[in-house]
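Good morning C.,

I know you're traveling, so I'll keep this short. The sequence:
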Amino acid sequence: MEAVSRTRCFLPLPPKPTKVTTFLNPSQGLKHRLFAPKHLEINGLSLSYKTISCLEGKPSGLPLKKKSFVCKAGAASAGETDKPKVLGVELVTLKKIIPLGLMFFCILFNYTILRDTKDVLVVTAKGSSAEIIPFLKTWVNLPMAVGFMLLYTKLSNVLSKKALFYTVIVPFIAFFGAFGFLLYPLSYYIHPEALSDHLLAVLGPRFLGPLAIMRIWSFCLFYVMAELWGSVVISVLFWGFANQITTVEEAKRFYPMFGLGANIALIFSGRTVKYFSNMRKNLGPGVDGWAISLKGMMSIVVLMGFAICFLYWWVNKYVPLPKRSRKKKEKPNMGTMESLKFLVSSPYIRDLATLVVAYGISINLVEVTWKLKLKAQFPSPNEYSSFMGDFSTGTGIATFTMMLLSQFIFDKYGWGVAAKITPTVLLLTGVGFFSLILFGDPLAPSLAKFGMTPLLAAVYVGAMQNIFSKSAKYSLFDPCKEMAYIPLDEDTKVKGKAAIDVVCNPLGKSGGALIQQFMILTFGSLANSTPYLGGILLMIVFAWLSAAKSLDTQFTVLRKEQELEKEMETAAPVVSEPENGSLASGSLLNPGESTESSSETSTEKDI
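The tokens, ready to paste straight into the viewer:
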């Protein structure tokens, strides 16, 4: 018989199999013999086919001419497709999710300690105040973030992913250990106190913020490194690694759950900060409590850093990577400027950048004003640090609760609705905070009945605003942002994350700081500029919501394309034949019939 077969992938069928199933069986009826599906097993390959057209018989009664049939290849045994499961989750998935959850726990445990410590260091230091924060974020944090992004982009072109991970995280661990045991004990000798005092006397008090950066430069370096820990280790290293080893389906199910363990870390790290704050308060006179506390907390940070490295090594060694689409876009080896131009030209990346920058500006407009009120209410380092410990614990509890609801939100309403919840929460709570600052004095008699002053009420409302905003960020905003990277090709994913998370995040914070500096210089104080800050917050949130809507449309299209490519690659091969043909090699269907000419024989290439 002559056959022409068309397949989308190679199907290795031997030209003369030794084991086949005959068409006729005396115990079967005519209808069953003609139309029932047949199964062949060839070298462990299960082959199913079914005749669906008219037959022409020979004297032997065997069907020789069939207008079409479909051939599907599958596994010879069903056991090959069965995978071990635990509590309904595949074991290979658990081997990825559990270590990732532990990594996130350790990273956020460190970040909470570093975040609370950096504020106490720079705000309560001699010759400094909360006004230093906008200058730090604008003139120190942003340039260092840009420099790191450029360096990271270069390293990503020459180092493997494993080497890149260790090259980035080890300097962080070394610095925080060195700060607790070397830099802080030597701060009295390496800080230019006398020079700063002289310059302040010459330039005037309006230069207090910039001069404080020089006065306590090692504390400012700690502040910047703690900020970069959040941008680099959390956003680039962890989420980049998670996107590398998970699929979209796994991400949608488990990304929100990562925060459950991570926010337990917030609770415990908040208690850790609270413990060291109380320990400093109970020390005798003349004892440097900060030196003792920093040694203890930085020791914990270093140990957690080594745990992160171990978990990363274990996952790379024992967990297989998921199969990605083999379809890749050919891209030239781009330099730094070419990479930035490529990212800026992408609407998808621009929308992602808008989300990150908008969050940074929005949270900064409220957070810096809140910290000024917090310093006024709790001027001593012990009280300030103790309150921040309680704040971190409250954030962990609220975020843990939001994490429990986030998977329901993703399943019920999808990515688009989940991405819009964070800006909505930030808008509502921010309006409440600014309203209390504006109309606090008329509310003083009413607040006195509850034992609170307008200042204390503003501190508590600002704390609630930060807690709810951060809980929405950790449980919904971050998972949404990271899920949006998954459908991208590897080149855009790696360089896009570096540009967005390392540059856009501090750019948003610095943008908020610049707005506040401009408002202070123009209107004289933050209180006088509060109505204008509220209007700016409103415009930024609306731009945030618009970008989230646009990104939702693009993400849906890319995900459908990725799923279609995956289905095309894993689809069963189809064999079809024209009207005057039959399956390749007639001896495959009827071993007793020999081929009569070379045209009746199909080669392995045809198959």
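Safe travels,
E.
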